[in-house]
Amino acid sequence: MPKPHILYILWSFIILSLLRLQLNTGRLTRIQELETNTENLKNENYTKYMNPEFDKVYINYVKKHNKIIANLLASSNNSSELPKVVVVRPDMHSGFGNRMPGIICGFLYSLISDRLFFIDGYQNFDNYFEKDFDHNWDTVSYLYRGSTAKDLHVNETINNFTLVTRGNFSSEEINSYDILRVHTWDYVCAPLSSNPYYKEWFNKIIPDYRIFTTISLRLLRLHPDLKSQVEEYANNNFSDYNIGIHLRERKTKNDTNSLMIPIGHYYEAVRMLMLEVKNKNVSIFVAADTTDGRNKLVNLLSEEFKSNNIYHNNNNSVKIIHSEDNMDLNNTITWENSGTEAGAIIDLKLLGLCDDLVLTYASSFGFLAAGWSHKASRQRGLLIINPIKKVWTDNLQVIDKVWMWGAISSEPCMYMSKLLITNEDEETTRIFKSNPLWIHYSQCHYPIEPYKKSKKS
Ligand SMILES: Nc1nc2c(ncn2[C@@H]2O[C@H](COP(=O)(O)OP(=O)(O)OP(=O)(O)O)[C@@H](O)[C@H]2O)c(=O)[nH]1
Ligand SMILES: *[C@@H]1O[C@H](CO)[C@@H](O)[C@H](O)[C@H]1NC(C)=O
Ligand SMILES: *[C@@H]1O[C@H](CO)[C@@H](O)[C@H](O)[C@H]1NC(C)=O
Ligand SMILES: *[C@@H]1O[C@H](CO)[C@@H](O)[C@H](O)[C@H]1NC(C)=O
Ligand SMILES: *[C@@H]1O[C@H](CO)[C@@H](O)[C@H](O)[C@H]1NC(C)=O
Ligand SMILES: *[C@@H]1O[C@H](CO)[C@@H](O)[C@H](O)[C@H]1NC(C)=O
Ligand SMILES: *[C@@H]1O[C@H](CO)[C@@H](O)[C@H](O)[C@H]1NC(C)=O
Ligand SMILES: *[C@@H]1O[C@H](CO)[C@@H](O)[C@H](O)[C@H]1NC(C)=O
Ligand SMILES: *[C@@H]1O[C@H](CO)[C@@H](O)[C@H](O)[C@H]1NC(C)=O
Ligand SMILES: *[C@@H]1O[C@H](CO)[C@@H](O)[C@H](O)[C@H]1NC(C)=O
Ligand SMILES: *[C@@H]1O[C@H](CO)[C@@H](O)[C@H](O)[C@H]1NC(C)=O
Ligand SMILES: *[C@@H]1O[C@H](CO)[C@@H](O)[C@H](O)[C@H]1NC(C)=O
Ligand SMILES: [Mg+2]
C-alpha cells in the first residue's frame, strides 16, 4: 500500500516538474522573441529602454488575447458570454500626435480592467506597425452588435475624468458594460496613475511613470521595412551626440490669430545645448512640417556651425541632417497636414533616437516623439518652446513674450489636464495632483483657455 503511494507521488512530481519546465521554456522563448523584436536601434546599449516587469504583463496579455479570440472565433463555440473589451477609435484625420495617445490609453485601460483591447478603424495599421496579436476590431465587432457600451472619452467636452482619476474599473457598474469606448486626441489616461485603486499596480509594473514609453515601445513597434530605413539612416547620419528638432509651421489657419514659432527660437535652444557639448561629433536632426521652414532652419544652423570643427573652442564636429519626406505633398489620410504617413513615422522615430529634443508647445507630434523614445532613460526632459501670435514680430530682440522650459520627463503631456483641474470636483482635482508628474502633464500644448463648466463640489 505505502509503496505504490510513494511511487505515485514521485511520478506526479516528475510529471509536474517536466510540465513546469516546459511552461517556463515556452515562456522564455516568447520573452526572448519579444526582446529580439524590440527596436534596438543604432547602438543598442544606448537606445534601449527596458521594463522587464511590464514585459511580463505584456506577454501574458498577448497569450490571453490570442487564446480567447481563437476560442471565440472557433465555430464550435456557442458561448453567449462575450469577453469584455476596450475599443479605441483613433481620429484618422488627425496626425500621429493626436492618434497614438488614445491607443496607448486604451491598452492601459484594458490591462487594468482585465478586458481585451481593440482598435477600430485604423486603416493600414499593419503597413506601419508590427503586431503581436490581432487587435483589429473588425475581427470580432460583428459579435458585439447587441452589446452594451460606455463612453470613457468622446471629445473635449465628454470625458469621465472622475472614473479615470479615482474610480474602480472593476466595479459592478463598469463590469455591466461589454464595451468601454475611447475616442480622443489627448493623453487622457494620465490621471490613472494618480488613481488610488491602481497605485499599487503602477508602483509594481511602471514605477518610473514612463507609461507612454513603456507601452508604446511594445504595442507600436515599427514595421520591419520602416525600421530598417530608420536604422540605415541613423547608422549613416547620427553621431555620438544627437540633437533632434521638431519644427511645426502649418499649425492653424493662416489668420492673424494663429500661432507661430519663430525659427530663431529653435536655433537659440540648440546654441544653448551646444555650450555644454565638448569633444564630440554632433548631429543635429531637423524634422519639419514644411520644406521651406526646414531649409531656413538648416541654413541658420549651418551658418552658425560652419567652422565645423570648433564651436566656442569646444572641439566638436557638427553636421546638420534631415530625412527626406516630400512635405509639399498633401497627406491623403490627415486633412490639413503635408508629407506622407511613412515619412512622418520615420521622422518620429528618428527624433526618438536623439539625445536631446527641441520641440514646440504647439505640436503633439513632438511630444509623441519624446514619449515613443528609446532614450527615455535619459535624465533631461525635452526642451519646449512656446509659440507666439502671428501678429508679433519674430525678431527675438524685439519680442518679450518668449519662453521655453525643460521638461522633467519624456512622457507626453495631457492638454486637457487644464480642463480637469478647472472643471472637475475638488476631490478629483486633489487626487490628480497626488501624481508627481501632474505639473509636467499640465504644462503643455498651446494655451487654449479652458472653458468653464459650473464647478461641481
Ligand atoms: N514627416 C513629417 N511630418 C510631419 C512633421 N510635423 C508634422 N507632420 C505631419 O503633420 C501631422 C501633425 O499632426 P499631429 O501629429 O497630430 O501633431 P499636431 O502638431 O499636434 O497637430 P494638430 O493637433 O492636429 O494641430 C503629422 O502626423 C505628420 O503627418 C515632421 O516633422 N515631419
Ligand atoms: C553593451 O553592453 C554589454 C553588457 O552590458 C556589453 O557586453 C557589450 O559589449 C556592449 N555593447 C556595446 C556595443 O557597447
Ligand atoms: C468559448 O469562448 C469563451 C470566450 O473566449 C471561452 O471562455 C470558453 O471557454 C470557450 N468555450 C469553448 C468550449 O471553447
Ligand atoms: C452552435 O450553434 C449552432 C446553431 O446556432 C448549432 O447548430 C451547433 O450545434 C452549436 N454547437 C455547439 C457545440 O453547441
Ligand atoms: C461632443 O460630443 C457630444 C456627443 O456626441 C456632442 O453633443 C458635442 O457637441 C461634442 N462637443 C464637441 C466640442 O465636439
Ligand atoms: C463616470 O463614470 C462613473 C462610473 O461609471 C459614473 O458613476 C459617472 O456618472 C460617470 N460620470 C460622467 C460624467 O459620465
Ligand atoms: C473594485 O471593485 C471590485 C468589485 O466590487 C472589487 O472586487 C475590487 O476589489 C475593487 N478593487 C479594488 C482595488 O479595491
Ligand atoms: C542620411 O542617410 C541616408 C541613408 O539612409 C543618406 O541617403 C543621406 O544622404 C544621409 N543624409 C544626410 C543629410 O547625411
Ligand atoms: C498668410 O497670409 C499672409 C498675409 O495675408 C500672406 O502674405 C502669406 O503668404 C500667407 N501664408 C500662407 C502660407 O498662405
Ligand atoms: C569624430 O569623427 C571623426 C571621423 O568620423 C573621428 O576621426 C574623430 O575622432 C571623432 N571625434 C570625436 C571627438 O569623437
Ligand atoms: C579635439 O579632438 C581631437 C580628436 O577628436 C583631440 O585629439 C584633441 O585633443 C581635442 N582638442 C582639445 C582641445 O580637446
Ligand atoms: C494641398 O491642399 C491645399 C489645400 O489644403 C491645396 O491648396 C494644394 O493645392 C494641395 N496640394 C497638392 C499638391 O495637392
Ligand atoms: Mg495635436
TrEMBL record:
Annotated transmembrane regions: none
Extent of the signal sequence: 1-26
Xref: PANTHER family: ALPHA- 1,6 -FUCOSYLTRANSFERASE, ALPHA-(1,6)-FUCOSYLTRANSFERASE
Organism per entry: Gigaspora margarita
The protein, known as: Fucosyltransferase
GO biological process: protein N-linked glycosylation
Keyword set includes Metal-binding: no
GO MF, one annotated term: alpha-(1->6)-fucosyltransferase activity
Keywords, in A-Z order: Signal
